[in-house]
């Protein structure tokens, strides 16, 4: 195997417990190997700015504090909102996310060329795998599974109007002209 230009060899010493854990992940097929695992950890570290975590359990993305929140908890809160107010609640959440992305990541939602980076950021935050394909937005494994809440959220975040083409995951939205 040839040496990659600009790469350096580094030795990492794992304690026994960590090495057993990593070996188990590899044996179970959850990780393909040590090098891909370390590469993935660096990607997560860079994308989530883990160096901004304040222990115990405080994480900030720019000005916004982020916490793990269960999908069931979100569903319970959504059920407390009247059906007619759900889209507006989604828009308010989208406005907050847009503001956070603009201030923290300098992503201007009015520029469509920024949308893929914004949608990638949503994936990193756990909102699901959301991709733009032409005038179609596909949401696989959505964290927000209420279609009206999700539509309001994405419409406000991206500054567009969406038409839901499917009601269950994968959810497909078409951009309205």
Q: What does this 3D model show about the protein?
A:
It is built from 6 helices and 6 strands. The chain has 2 domains: 16-65, no CATH class; 71-175, no CATH class. It is elongated and about 55 Å long. A 4-stranded antiparallel beta sheet has the order 3-4-6-5. Strands 1-2 form a two-stranded antiparallel sheet. It has helices at 16-27, 34-48, 71-79, 86-105, 115-124, 147-158; strands at 59-61, 64-66, 129-133, 136-140, 162-164, 171-175. It has 177 residues and is of the alpha+beta class.
Descriptive keywords:
about 180 residues; alpha+beta; 2 domains; four-stranded antiparallel sheet; two-stranded antiparallel sheet; elongated
Helix and strand arrangement:
Elements: H1 16-27, H2 34-48, E1 59-61, E2 64-66, H3 71-79, H4 86-105, H5 115-124, E3 129-133, E4 136-140, H6 147-158, E5 162-164, E6 171-175
Antiparallel strand pairs: 1-2, 3-4, 4-6, 5-6
Helix pairs in contact: 4-6
Order of strands, main sheet, comes to: 3-4-6-5
Largest sheet: 4 strands, antiparallel
**Number of individual domains:** 2
Structural class: alpha+beta
Which percent band covers the strand fraction?
Answer: 5-15%
The percent of residues in helical segments reads 40-55%
The number of helical elements comes to: 6
What's the SSE pattern? HHEEHHHEEHEE
Distance between the termini: 52 Å
What general form does the structure show? elongated
Mean pLDDT: 89
Which blocks of ≥5 consecutive residues have pLDDT under 50? none
- Count of distinct strands: 6
Give the C-alpha Rg.
Answer: 19 Å
């Amino acid at each position: 195997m040839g040496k990659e230009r600009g790469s350096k060899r580094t030795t990492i010493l794992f304690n026994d417990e960590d090495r057993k854990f990593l070996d188990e992940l590899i044996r179970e097929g959850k990780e393909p190997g040590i090098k891909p695992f370390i590469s993935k950890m660096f990607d997560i570290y860079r994308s989530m700015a883990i160096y901004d975590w304040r222990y115990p359990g405080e994480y900030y993305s720019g000005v916004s504090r982020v916490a793990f929140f269960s999908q069931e908890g979100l569903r319970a809160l959504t059920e407390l909102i009247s059906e007619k107010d759900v889209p507006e609640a989604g828009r308010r959440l989208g406005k907050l996310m847009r503001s956070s992305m603009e201030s923290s990541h300098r992503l201007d939602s009015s520029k469509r060329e920024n949308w893929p980076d914004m949608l990638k950021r949503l994936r990193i935050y756990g909102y699901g795998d959301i991709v733009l394909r032409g005038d179609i937005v596909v949401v696989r494994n959505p964290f927000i599974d209420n279609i009206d809440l999700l539509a309001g959220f994405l419409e406000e975040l991206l500054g567009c109007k969406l038409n839901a083409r499917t009601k269950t995951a994968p959810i497909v939205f078409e951009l309205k002209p």
